[in-house]
Amino acid sequence: MMNVVEAQKTMFGVTKERQGDSVQGNLILSLKGISKTFDVGSNKQTVLNAVSLDVREHEFLAVMGPSGAGKTTLLNIMGGLEIPDEGEIFFQNKKIDTSDFKQASRFRAEHIGFIFQNYNLVDELSVRENIELASTIKGNYKEVREKIPAICKKLQIEQFLDHYPIKLSGGERQRCACARALCKQADFILADEPTGALDRRTTTNLVQLFQQMIQEEGISVVLVTHDPFVASFSNRVIFIQDGTITDELTSNTGRESFYQQIVMKL
Q1: Which of 14, 78, 118, 149 is the 20 to 30 A CA-CA neighbour of 101?
Q2: Residue-level pLDDT at 143
Q3: What are the beta bridge partners of residue 174?
């Protein structure tokens, strides 16, 4: 039976400690005083309560908290899919009016790559066509096509490119959804539990691919997760409960140490 030290080596591998993981890039997205309520029967439920949050270029931000804490709503508002009741959203220091359908649609098409919990693949299109679909919205078809082979190989789905989503497992469909977002060449990726249907090896491949694209292409990633292992790859973790940000951790040492810090906060 593995002891604790052996188990940790298996999880983290033998890697050097990370140093200086805090992000000093320019501000790319800013939320100021965001509040959101939903009607639940005859009552109103506050999902987000005066949340303010800054995300910088090249940042890998993890969002953690219990179910119903407001994590997915926060992600949807960041991506212009939900309209806040109160507060303001700024992208690259320009205010985004998500109540303006055309402005919100253009913002999503030009800047955001989404990875949804329920995949949001089109069953009538092949995996390749689903991935290429994002390029038809942004208009960068050639660039997307060039990136598909390498990213799909990294995610181990290159053999499924001509298959249809209905023929794939949940984990395979999740990887297709990830490939679609990563190939889009977005400035910002918003990922809602992207590793929930993946095994540990594929999970590691995905979060390392996020890190690689942050370093090489300068994107930012905001990822919702319940898994401290996944969160330990990020630069920063915020914790949400009852619609408010209750705590925050920044990675300044190695990933194993950061993982332990995250676990202690849960």
Answers
A1: 118
A2: 82
A3: none
